[in-house]
């Protein structure tokens, strides 16, 4: 989001950028975006801050065993009887401890394909015994292991845990650590959100859910509001946005923070869930404390939003982690989101302040080679409204692929990801609205990369785009599609040989598979077209989205022609 103000955008951008550079000591007075000078008259230079593949840990290229653990859910609440810890024993060329694919007791030698482990509370010094004992396959999908919560005291401080693992005969050993929160229960009028660290999705609970955590795929807009304290106008705002079966279930509310603001009362009375906007105050921790304490008891609150493009503005690195830490202290029941703008400008430093990572590539109708500032746009110079973009829907795919790769290179557990699709135009960067087809495709491409939520910038938008996003939201925020998208990362991602811009992903749940087929080209792919499936299916259950006439023949999805800029969600029954 470049998102300068319309009246004095150039001045505001320049001053803000100069201020951020003064704070970081980087070339005071030079207007920069994502580290790059964008106005004429300044020299082009390497912006730095790139995330690169680490050096191989072993000179011969052999892998190490990288053991990580993570609580299945970011929080557990008083009254829950079982918790769960995920164990991932992956082979890595960059991280971990030495591993040899054999284990022996001197007389018997076997392949080392299974890690035997115990997990204990770090504070117990193992006095209470392990809370989990088990084994996990080497270099397979991460697995979750349940443990008993009933003997623990709910508290605000996290519980630290440590894993001790070894090969079958014990001559190779490993350790990993993590923590989990087991919190006092929420007040009846409050809410709580869990991150599912196995699937990358969210679970939400308030009085409307009957006290049970339910899957939440938030879908909506950043919603502008006039700030009126009129109850009638506030109720109208929420009703216009969400009622009449429009399907939108979430909003990043730009409605201020006063507890008496009736827009929040209206959302609490509806099924709307909101992410609270702290983008204008997250640098001031006193103000953060005031606002969080004002809003944290709301039943429709599901998350906080702090930094809006801190990488673009070159905010000091410590700012977002400090805000996140304070919010966790004040309200551990709701996660914190940050929005990154740049393709890769100190990703590692700017992403650590969030529990949810949002990305906002806005590629539609830009000039990706020459900017309104009178400078060319390339890797080291210029600002064309979408950092290092080509100006097509595939920029969404590329940006999410980048973030996923950076986390792997940094050895991190992946954060849940949201997409902020473009639903606007203007500012001499974007020359038209996206079409409804482009809106569908950008979101579908993001779902194909495992995103668990979408918030478009911004509402109000065109009636056509509002209707399009509402139509898609009505499908993906409800079962059965929601449960596929939140049930885990896509099982695979492939391309169509005869259509290189056709992007295909699959999710398996129970006795069904959902296929997402996206044509990101501006022309039809002529057929007949056959798409092979990675599993054996018996029939098409439903075409959940897209309205195309798919058929199943010889175990393949088939269609006569795949229309330009189209997205389909097809649910099939497994044999």
What does this structure look like?
The chain folds into three domains: 65-183, Immunoglobulin-like (Sandwich), CATH 2.60.40; 191-385 and 419-486, TIM Barrel (Alpha-Beta Barrel), CATH 3.20.20; 492-574, Immunoglobulin-like (Sandwich). The longest helix is centred in the last third of the chain and has 17 residues, at 394-410. An eight-stranded parallel barrel has the order 17-18-19-20-21-22-23-24. The chain is α/β, with parallel strands linked by helices and 575 residues long. The protein is built from eleven helices and 32 strands. Helix 2 (231-242) packs across helix 3 (262-268), helix 4 (285-295) runs parallel beside helix 6 (319-330) and helix 9 (436-447) runs parallel beside helix 10.
């Amino acid at each position: 989001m470049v998102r300068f103000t319309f009246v004095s955008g150039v001045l505001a951008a320049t001053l803000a950028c100069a201020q951020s550079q003064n704070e970081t000591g980087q070339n005071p007075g030079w207007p920069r975006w994502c580290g790059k000078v964008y106005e004429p008259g300044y020299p082009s230079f390497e912006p730095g801050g790139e995330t690169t593949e680490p050096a191989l840990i072993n000179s011969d290229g052999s892998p190490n065993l990288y053991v990580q653990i993570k609580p299945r859910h970011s929080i557990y609440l008083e009254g829950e009887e079982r918790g769960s810890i995920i164990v991932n024993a992956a082979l890595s060329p960059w991280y971990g401890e030495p591993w040899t694919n054999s284990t022996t007791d001197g007389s018997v030698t076997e392949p080392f394909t299974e890690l035997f482990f115990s997990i204990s509370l770090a504070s117990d010094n193992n006095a209470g015994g392990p809370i989990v004992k088990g084994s996990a396959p080497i270099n397979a999908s991460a697995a979750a292991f349940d443990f008993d919560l009933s003997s623990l005291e709910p508290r605000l401080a996290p519980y630290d845990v440590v894993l001790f693992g070894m090969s079958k005969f014990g001559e190779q050993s490993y350790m990993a650590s993590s923590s989990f929160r087991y919190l006092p229960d929420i007040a009846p009028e409050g809410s709580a959100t869990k991150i599912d660290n196995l699937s990358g999705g969210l679970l939400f609970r308030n009085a409307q859910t009957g006290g049970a955590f339910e899957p939440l795929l938030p879908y909506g807009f950043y919603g502008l509001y006039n700030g009126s304290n009129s109850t009638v106008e506030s109720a109208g705002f929420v009703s216009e946005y969400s009622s009449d079966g429009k399907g939108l279930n979430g909003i990043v509310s730009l409605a201020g923070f006063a507890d008496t603001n009736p827009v929040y009362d209206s959302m609490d009375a509806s099924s709307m869930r909101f992410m609270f906007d702290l983008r204008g105050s997250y640098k001031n921790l006193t103000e953060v404390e005031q606002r969080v304490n004002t809003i944290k008891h709301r039943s429709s609150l599901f998350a906080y939003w702090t930094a809006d493009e801190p990488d673009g503005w070159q905010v000091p690195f410590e700012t977002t982690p400090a805000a996140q830490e304070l919010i966790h202290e004040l309200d551990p029941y709701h996660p914190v989101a940050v929005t990154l703008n740049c393709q890769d400008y100190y990703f590692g430093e700017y992403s650590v302040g969030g529990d949810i990572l949002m990305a906002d590539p806005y590629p539609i109708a830009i000039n990706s080679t020459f900017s309104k500032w009178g400078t060319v746009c390339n890797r080291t110079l210029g600002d064309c409204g979408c950092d290092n973009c080509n100006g097509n829907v595939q920029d969404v795919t590329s940006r999410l692929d980048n973030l996923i790769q950076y986390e792997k290179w940094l050895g991190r557990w992946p954060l849940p990801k949201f997409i902020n699709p473009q639903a606007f135009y203007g500012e001499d960067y974007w020359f038209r609205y996206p079409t409804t087809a482009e809106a569908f495709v950008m979101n579908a491409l993001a779902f194909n990369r495992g995103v668990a939520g979408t918030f478009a910038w911004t509402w109000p938008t065109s009636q056509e785009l509002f209707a399009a996003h509402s139509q898609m939201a009505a499908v993906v925020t409800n079962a059965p599609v929601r449960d596929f998208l939140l049930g885990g990362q896509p099982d695979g991602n492939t391309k169509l040989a005869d259509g290189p811009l056709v992007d295909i992903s699959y999710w398996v749940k129970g006795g069904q598979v959902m296929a997402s087929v996206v044509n990101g080209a501006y022309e039809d792919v002529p057929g007949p077209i056959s798409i092979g499936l990675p599993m054996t299916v018996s029939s098409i259950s439903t075409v959940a989205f897209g309205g195309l006439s798919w058929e199943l023949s010889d175990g393949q999805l088939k269609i006569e022609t795949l229309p330009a800029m189209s997205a389909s969600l097809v649910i099939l029954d497994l044999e």
